[in-house]
Amino acid sequence: MKPLVTYWNATPISAVAPHYLLLWVSALILAYEPVRWLVHTWMDPSYDSKGFFVFALCATLFTWSMTSPKVTCRPNDKKKPYALLGGSAVVRLIGQVAAVNVIGALTLIIDVYALCKIAAVENRKRALSPLWLALCFAFSLPLERIIQRTIGYMLQGFSAAGACRILGVFHDNVVCHGVRILINARDVMVDLPCSGARSVLLLLFFYCACAALSRFNVRVAIAGLFVALLSALLMNMLRICLLSVGLAYPVFGIDVMAQPWHDLIGLMTLGLGCLPVVWWGRQFYVPQKELPPVLDRACFLVPESLKKDGWWLQDTQKTKDKMPYVRVGAAISFVFLALFITAMPRTALDVVRKDLPLSLPYSLNGIVGISIPLRSAEAQYFTQYGGSAEKRQYGSHGLMMVRTSAPLRHLHAPDACLRGLGMTVEYKGVDYSSIPSAIYKATDQTGAAYRIAVSFIPEDKSHITPNVSEAVWHWLQKPGQSWMAVQRISPWDTPFESNQRFDQAFIAALDLDPDNSPILIAHSGVKL
Questions:
Q1: How far apart are CA 101 and CA 121, in angstroms?
Q2: How far is CA 301 from the centre of its chain?
Q3: Which tens digit of pLDDT belongs to each residue from 204-252?
Q4: Which residues of 153-174 are buried (b: 16+ CB within 10 A; e: fewer)?
Q5: Is the dihedral of CA 444, 447, 448, 451 positive or negative?
Q6: Which 8-state DSSP code applies to residue 100?
Q7: Which secondary-structure segment (H or E) carries 212?
Q8: pLDDT of residue 521
């Protein structure tokens, strides 16, 4: 095998034009902070990101293509580096000014595309599409959390409605209300992890990988995108149906909600969802075309040589002599522009007041509360961009409240913060026995386990939900009001009755009306 540098067609650093070196410096300046943040999301347990594996797969595909020889003498577009760097600068500027890290990280997608074009992966024997490979890399960003928080509730409702229609064809005793399904007296719930966001992202990533290998044209790519989306949503509905039927009619006593059965059903339906994408990729695969060597040189090398050295172009020699200085001047300008962009102050658009009124009850169940200072990680997590947060301890029960008028940025499910504190977190579903509450089991490094119950409540207390994506969904429709996240913490082995009494006490103290929550089909639901 030839050395890797041979396939790259690299030239010595001393032979590289100065303006290209300056452009690389500008690109590195713009990419430094997004790269640092992206690597942090891979390592920080609060993100629960599998982005590194996506990056590793993209790097493997890139290396696999680059280690094959070029099959054409087609030259690269020399104007493209400027255009791509300009696009990176604009994206990076928006992310810097708005203080949204994900926007700044989009710069890296442009950089990956530029790197693929420089390596000419589309002109190699094992050809790849630079655009689709760059889009594959985009899935290394924490996209699932963004989708869950923005359109997660809509996907929940869509998946639940589709599953209800399918179940209704085969079963008469199916009752559906919103994201809840009652079948054979068993209450199940299409919860946030099963909203379909994860299956949509996995299928779209698989589709982008297939598109990079098959090198779809625009018409085929758009049609295939709809095929992948439809397949992802249908397979998620099928998964919900299988889990619902498995709960209603257990086979051989198998608990479909327990491991490994729960994940095996998910993997099986995901595999079925990949089949239409594989068929689409094979159907519209574009093979690499190789011209005969003589014809290839005649098409590309000869025109370039004539354009560069033709005797009839001598009149423009003075203009050509000035071009290197123009290019270097433009490259230096890009360096200063990159430094200026990265030095601009970050001003989040949705920063809110930090003095929002928030008062925890003085006592609950006759126990006077003791104020507990927020940990530094908690304070940063909940109040970095405004809002208020307080925590109190009432005997063995703890109460933490967060209030903000920008829930899209500030409100989070507790699992992210708990993982960031080094705890192992398990989602246990939703409890409707007092008010709708998402239940988590958090275990610290010493083995101590805690029950975390969280509810999200709007300022007018008109709708109580256990789902942060539903809270954001309602806030987007009525952005003028603030929302509260109310967390109750107790030892995991605390009796059910004790947790109920504490919940009832804080419900009375906050003057909440549980009847404002969605209609309850049963006292508790099993999450899907």
A1: 29
A2: 44
A3: 999 999 999 999 888 899 999 999 999 988 888 888 888 877 777 777 7
A4: bebbbbbbebbbebbeeeeeeb
A5: positive
A6: -
A7: helix 197-214
A8: 40
Q: Quick one: which H or E segment has residue 1?
A: none
State pTM to two decimals: 0.80
Largest CA distance in the chain: 98
Residue with tokens 């708005």: 98
Output the average pLDDT for the chain.
80
* Through-space distance between the first and last CA atoms of the chain, rounded to whole angstroms: 50
Alpha carbons 340 and 361: distance in angstroms, whole number: 49
Give CA torsion, residues 404, 410, 413, 419, to 10 deg: -130
Higher pLDDT residue, 291 or 280?
Answer: 280
Are 85 and 118 contacting, i.e. CB atoms less than 8 angstroms apart?
no
What does residue 236 show for φ and ψ, rounded to 5 degrees? -70, -40
User: Which helix H or strand E contains 234, and what residues bound it?
Assistant: helix 218-248
Nearest Cα neighbor of 77 from 39, 130, 118 is 118
Burial environment of residue 395 by CB neighbours within 10 A (0 to 12, 13 to 18, 19 or more): middle
Copy the structure tokens of residue 161.
């409605």
What 3 state SS string does 116-183 have?
Answer: HHHHCHHHECCCCCHHHHHHHHHCCCCHHHHHHHHHHHHHHHHHHHHHHHHHHHHCCCEEEECCEEEE
For residue 2, what pLDDT band results from cuts at 50, 70 and 90? very low
Place of tokens 């309602």: 474
What is the SS3 string spanning 439-495? Answer: EEEEECCCCCEEEEEEEEEECCCCCCECCHHHHHHHHHHCCCCCEEEEEEEEECCCC
Of 467, 442, 453, 353, nearest to 401 by C-alpha is 453
Please name which of 65, 111, 68, 49 lies closest in space to residue 86, comparing C-alpha atoms. 111
User: Which residues make beta-bridge pairs with 453?
Assistant: 439, 488
CA–chain centroid gap for 312, Å, is 56
Instruction: Give the CA angle between residues 360, 366, 369 to the nearest 5°.
Output: 35
- CA angle (414, 381, 146) in 5-degree steps: 70
Q: Which helix (H) or strand (E) holds 82?
A: helix 80-98
Q: Which two tokens stand for residue 64?
A: 């696999």
DSSP state of 310: -
| CB atoms inside a 10 Å sphere around CB 232 | 27
Q: Which residues contact 169 (CB under 8 A, 6 or more apart)?
A: none
Burial class (CB in 10 A: 0-12, 13-18, 19+), 358: middle
